[in-house]
Amino acid sequence: MKDQIKIGQAGTLESSDVLVFVRFSPLQKGIKIELESPSEKCFGKIIIRKIEETLNLLGIKNIYIKAQDRGALDCTISARVETAVKRAQKSIGGKEE
Amino acid sequence: MKKRLRRTALYIPGNDPSMIQNAGIFGSDSIVLDLEDAVSVDEKDSARLLVRNALKNINYGDTEVIVRINSLFTPFGKEDLEVIGRVHPDGIRLPKAESAQDIQEVDSFLSRIENEEGFEENSIKIMPSIESAIGLFNVFEIVRASNRVAVINFGAEDYTSDIGAERTKEGKELFDIRTRILLAARVVGIEVQDSVFAHAHDIEGLIRETKFIKQLGFDGKSVIHPAQIEPVHQVFTPTQEEINRAKRIILAIEEAKKRKSGVISLDGRMIDAPVVAKAHRILKYAQAAGVL
Amino acid sequence: MDYQVIDIHNKSEREEIIKFLQTLNLKYENNIEYTLALLEDGKIVGTGSISGKVLKCIAVDARKQGEGIAAKIVSRLVQEQFKKGRTKNFLFTSPDKVNQFTGLGFQLLALAEPSYALLEMGIDGINQYLQDLQKYQLIENNQKIISAMVINANPFTLGHQYLVKTASMESDVVYLFVVREDKSLFPFETRFSLIKQGCKEFNNVKVMDGGDYIISNATFPTYFSRESENDIVTGQAALDARIFIRYIVPTLKINRRYLGNEPYCGTTSIYNKVLKEILPSAGVKVKEISRFEIEGKAVSASSVRELIKKSKFTEIQKLVPSSTYLFLISEEAKPIINKIIASDSRH
To answer: Residue C284 above 80 pLDDT?
Structure first.
């Protein structure tokens, strides 16, 4: 059961929030971030850097993250990423359809 | 110790980033970032981190920042304290306070965290909320249980359920709890705030209730909607007459000092310490309301 | 504002939702498994529902538009879906509401004016699906006729085999998509396996999982329900066709689609009609093949199921390839056979 796929999700689609999905998988090498944001052109890089920074602080090296941004502040992004990661870590194994 | 005004405490749902980041602009004296009733069980972990990060990164200016944690009787309370304590809120609102022991437990927790983080001792305040019959019964020991206790509140919904009363708009069923916690607060010299007026769109009802509790002696009120802030502030704004009288009292004291007299009198009446204190307060409220 | 999970089995609670949706000219559809309502001062200001992987019947009180209520409802539904392990969500709505949902982060898959729009959001969406499809590409330079067909095959009969054979002989490559949705009496795994066995002899036929994007609960929900009004079927068929044209056709370079003429099933004949109207304009030729007949009767899966109900296995043997027959009389098939005997389903 150790090397199973683990998933976690946090946040919402409400204004100023960000919906974050994370997946740990034995096949995942490195950090892969997919970002969808209305301000992608201006702030896309900054948001991604914030996500990477949060993952670094949590010691995460291999993960897939998808973030649906709705204009969230840095501190919100970082909180939602941390929550999603912790939820995934706590889960026993993702339910794949 | 900073003596701040606490006319209004605005509840902010702890899982709502939009409200959290704007909490400071509404103009309330305090904000209460709520991890308890405003957050569903599934989202307690999420809200906790959101509030923690907000405290670390958002500048709320002069607004007092309080966090309402979950009761220590729940699986969430201790984790809330552990995480939130480290980012130094101004105060912790403790729901369902029932005994001195509850307060002491939080006190020890906070002392340990303040020590570990290098914060000033006793700098994080405790604001117990009385929400049950047993809590009210023990209110005197609760307010005395720790130096951190700065304000006392109560929760009308939970309390009335607990004692089997009917919750009404008029609020007669709250008479006893209001007067008793007020008394307890005054005996130890702390502040007391009234519970929320839940009908966000009924401003007249809000004003009526606020006038009543101000008359009883309350220092302020919790609010659930930004639109309630200004009306409550207005009720707590002294009238010109009150301001004038307060000014004259202060003047009388200066006069007495100059004359090196021990007795202060104004208009033939003796003025003693509580009256002086009240005069200072009135001027403070007036200043906060911008009418001084 | 308060969230309330509606007890969908409670008639009066359902009525409240139906009434609310009616004020906005919407219907509370069938096969809904979860409904949420948002209340303010005891009145419904918004609602949304879940049906499998699909979010639908989402509506907000006209006077409360612009307050982020749709975002709140959709967020809650997405959370609920995640608890069920669903990491991708389709959203079914009308074309005039598309912008509202793309604003929330949904991606538009296809429109079928005037009534239908299908969007999606989440992990392993259409892009991943198309990437997986590309691995199946068998195209070599001299291949000109690249065909597709979609079958449910509940179970795989000589009629299906005839259709596949015809396509196989007339094309260079045939992509055979099997309907994924498990709303049929024969489960997907079984249907897929019987199809593969029955198509072994055709080596230019690639049997593939139709997935979420071909006749699924998302793209064509009424395909699976017993009765539906014709214009609803037409609208949804158009949606399915548009998705096919927009995504699957260019990825696999399909230029022909084979259809079995369907005398017995109203929904399928409407579907075929819609395909014949829409596909040619996208460069896909439609070939409708008449049903394979035995003793003057068209061989169909429903007739096989009827015979199963009556346990007339010798009759069945005449209508299906040996691979299917061997399965039907095997131990493995017993639970399915029993289900068929007990059922009333159209499928």
So the answer is: yes
Which residues in chain B have Cβ-Cβ distances shorter than 8 Å to A16? 17-18, 21
Contact yes or no for A14 and B18 at CB 8 A? yes
Within 8 A by CB and 6+ apart from B157, the residues are: B167, B198
What mean pLDDT is predicted for residues C315-342? 90
Question: C192: which 2 tokens?
Answer: 């897929």
Q: Name the residue among A14, A74, A76 with its Cβ closest to that of B50.
A: A76
Interface check for C66 against chain A (CB to CB < 8 A): the answer is no
Mean pLDDT of C188-213: 93
Q: For residue C118, with 0-12 CB atoms within 10 Å meaning exposed, 13-18 middle and 19 or more buried, which class applies?
A: buried
Q: Report the pLDDT value the prediction gives residue C139, as an integer from 0 to 100.
A: 64
| B264 and B146 both lie in a single domain | no
pLDDT of residue C218: 81
User: Within an 8 Å CB–CB cutoff, is residue C99 touching chain A?
Assistant: no
Query: For the segment B95-136, what is each residue's pLDDT rounded down to a tens digit?
Result: 999 999 999 999 999 999 999 999 999 999 999 999 999 999
Residue A87 has pLDDT above 70, yes or no: yes
The mean pLDDT of C143-160, rounded to a whole number, is: 91
Question: Which CATH number do you get for residue B97?
Answer: 3.20.20.60
Predicted TM-score (pTM) of the model is 0.89
* B3 part of a folded domain: no
Same domain, B263 and B162: no
Domain tally, chain B: 2
The residue ranges of every structural domain in chain C are 2-123, 128-342
Which domain covers residue B145, as residue numbers? 8-235
CATH number of A6-90: 3.30.230.10
pLDDT reported for residue A79: 98
Q: Taking the CA atoms of C147, C152, C153 and C159 in sequence, report the sign of the dihedral they define.
A: negative
The model's confidence at residue C227, banded by pLDDT at 50, 70 and 90, is: low
The second-level CATH assignment, the architecture, of C2-123 is 3-Layer(aba) Sandwich (3.40)
Q: Does A80 touch chain B (CB under 8 A)?
A: yes
Pick the CATH number of C128-342 from 1.10.10.10, 3.40.50.620, 3.40.50.300, 3.40.50.880: 3.40.50.620
Closest by Cβ to B18, choosing from A16, A75, A82: A16
- Assess whether pLDDT exceeds 50 at residue A94: no
The distance of A86 to chain C (nearest Cα, Å) reads: 15
- Residue A3 DSSP symbol: T
- Supply the pLDDT for residue C346: 57
With vertex at residue B90, the alpha carbon angle to CA B85 and CA B95, rounded to the nearest 5 degrees, is 70
Report the residue count for chain B: 292
Based on the domain organization, do B91 and B148 belong to the same domain?
yes
Q: Quickly count: other Cβ atoms within 10 Å of residue B25's Cβ.
A: 11
Q: What is the pLDDT of residues C47-60, one digit of tens each?
A: 999 999 999 999 99
Long-range contact list for C4-7, CB < 8 A, 24+ apart?
C4/C36, C4/C37, C4/C38, C4/C39, C5/C34, C5/C35, C5/C36, C6/C35, C6/C36, C6/C37, C6/C47
B164 and B137 in a common domain:
yes
The confidence score (pLDDT) of residue C301 equals 87
The residue out of B218, B235, B252 marking a domain boundary is B235
In a domain, B1, yes or no: no
Question: Rounded to whole angstroms, how far apart are CA atoms B56 and B86?
Answer: 9
CB-based contact, C69 to chain A, within 8 Å: no
Q: How many CB pairs under 8 A join A and B?
A: 42
Asked if B262 and B147 sit in the same domain, the reply is no
Contacts of A97 in chain C (CB under 8 A): 53, 85-87
B149 and B131 within one domain: yes
